[in-house]
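#struct-help
A.M.: can someone run this one for me? Single chain, 289 residues.
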Amino acid sequence: MISVTLSLWGVLPILLKLGLNYYSAGTIAWFRFFFSFLILFVFLSVFRSGSGILLRPPAIGVLGGAALAANYFAMTQGINFSGPSNAAIIIQVAPVLLVIAGVFLFHETIGGKQVAGMVLAAVGFYLFYLDRVGNAQDNFQYSTANGWILLAAVVWVFYMICQKRLSAKYSAQTLNLLVYAVAAIALIPLVEWNELLKGGFAGWLLLIVLGLNTLLAYGALAEAVECIPLSLISILITLNPLITLSGMWILNALVVETLPMENISGSGYMGGAIAVGGVVLVVASSQKK
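D.P.: on it. Structure tokens below:
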């Protein structure tokens, strides 16, 4: 289950950047949830039970759905204003915050190796930031992008806390059904409906692929949440940048016109690697404990 989520999240920033050629961030985020809700609702109605949660939804579940809606929109905006690789590195703040949340809320432990990992990650983030801000065409736009990505990290941690709180009472896919429904409703005001008529075959294909990415990635993640500590789950997104950066490097080398050149220098890649290494140390140490 974890490997499924890892792979899907690794290619997600690239798919989102492609989708932004056709649709706005609000439209993409809404469709991902709406599509996932429809498929999961049919699946649960036919093969399982659990759709009754929609009639009496728990308040924490509603808050979790709103948080994930904010995460999707903010992350897509961050990718829109910067790029897939930048978003994949900066979002690594999320697993660090998740480990800290696990310490305070779920009595998980934190040790010297984790503290060292946080310091190492901070150094890597700074080096990567220096490279990106030096190559950015518009520093204000780049700062705006990072603001959106950091917001996405914070609200994702809040979503995971809500999911963990409810996982003992509700099944994983039942919770996902509620989250998808709440998020789809919350994002309706941000949808540009005319875009759906103008996307064409390529645009709709990307929307469906993004919807399937959401359905499969969070379906697998929700199953893992039921039996795995938050500190272990957080190791998932520590490896995502390796897939994202590699994919973007290959696509830029092939000169794919629908994706912008990222122009990451050696120091930028080094900073990204240090940041990921620091985060891996944080979550791996937590996993060991």
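A.M.: thanks! The first helix runs from residue 2 to 19.
D.P.: also worth noting: Residues 50 and 170 are 8 Å apart (CA to CA).
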